[in-house]
Amino acid sequence: MATVLYFSKDYCPHDHRFLSALAGTEHRVYFLRLERGPRQTEDRPVPAAVEEVLWEGGRGPAKLAGGLRLLRSLKGVIREVRPDLIHAGPIQTCGLLAALAGFHPLLIMSWGFDLMQDAGRNAWWRWATAYTLQRASAFTSDCEATRDKAIAFGVLKERTVVFPWGVDLAHFSPSAVDRPSSTGFTLFCNRSWEPRYGVDVLARAFVQAARQRPGLHLMLLGGGSQGASIRQILERGGVAGQVSFAGQVPQAELPRYYRQADLFISPSHIDGSSVSLMEALACGLPCLVSDIPANKEWVSEDVNGWLFPDGNVDALATAILAAYDKRENLAAVGRAARTTAEEKADWKKNFQKLLEAYDLALQSKR
After folding, report:
1. In the predicted model, is pLDDT for residue 355 greater than 70?
2. How far apart are CA 278 and CA 125, in angstroms?
3. C-beta separation of 193 from 227 below 8 A
4. How many beta carbons lie within 10 A of that of residue 82, not counting itself?
């Protein structure tokens, strides 16, 4: 048994899932959150078996100006908790603080965007990434694309563990109960309305496609900083009446939305192994996604879905129309999607890889 300090930027559904799984192991687990963001995305409490640590962070947005204060407080937490292992991520925030504290063994976990986007922002971000990763006892990420980036920053390949985070295959599963009775064709996207996720690209493509196929419908979940511009694209394109906005949906209700759709679309410019994509596959939903490296690890052309050139509005519109025109023959694609999830996205099975990463990090201490 080890005492683990799980250090994350905020508290989101992914954190809840990690903490819930860790609570079921022999390890004693403490949770440290760096900040409390303006939008709470997880309404479930921290698992009862996990102790949340109160410290200088976790009360509001984290700011660089308060870095030294947070570092002193983190060192105090380490003295009090006396962890055998710190599990920290994203890299340039929680990971950096843990590395600056000089703690070992340290497992750094990439959240995808920290390597695929943030690491290349400027010289400071590149330094923070290299400094943190070169001090990691072990590294874990959810896809090969992020591991390759980490190795380029100095992580030894033999100190890495790749595991797609996966989904609950019983919760996210195909079902005819929630299927709509209409004869229309529904596109579904629940990516955040932020620049990195490309929902504006989808909005423009939908305008083109929906003008040609009145039977198309778009269902969008969530929200974000691009909300006003995305709505404007749809309204000016004259297709707002073919779009539904469901807002934030609790995790317990999310499978119903996947099952009401005919095609899942992720136009993300930057991603690791997308949990949304895995959820869609698990629900037996054909997937149309941007051709970024991580998506290529999941979607095979004409097998469980299709790829389109990242950021290409015209190509996405054409792909939507192609899927619509062969809508009567998508059942086999949906079955292949579910098979992919069963083979690669089983959370209960994949979680064991995280415990392997813990053992790898703890070996450095021994």
Report:
1. yes
2. 29
3. yes
4. 9
Cβ-based neighbours of 158, under 8 Å, separated by 6 or more: none
> Are 242 and 129 members of one domain?
no
Kindly state the DSSP code that residue 350 receives in the 8-state scheme: H
Beta-strand pair 3-8/160-162:
unpaired
Give residue 331's domain range.
Answer: 185-344
**DSSP label at residue 306:** E
Instruction: Find where tokens 């799980």 sit.
Output: 6
Q: Which amino acid is at 256?
A: R
Residue 366: is its pLDDT beyond 70? no
DSSP string computed for 66-127? GHHHHHHHHHHHHHHH--SEEEE-SIIIIIHHHHHTT-SSEEEE--SHHHHTGGGSSHHHHH
The residue-averaged pLDDT of 26-30 equals 97
Verify that 360 and 242 share a domain, yes or no. Answer: no
Residue 318, class by beta-carbon neighbours within 10 Å (0-12 exposed, 13-18 middle, 19+ buried)?
middle
Specify whether 158 is located in the same domain as 65: yes
**What average pLDDT is seen over the chain?**
94
Nearest Cα to 134, choosing from 146, 150, 119?
150
* Residue 180 included in any domain: no
Helix, strand, coil percentages (3-state) for the chain, rounded to 5, are: 45, 15, 35
Q: How far apart are CA 5 and CA 31, in angstroms?
A: 6
Predicted pLDDT at 179: 62
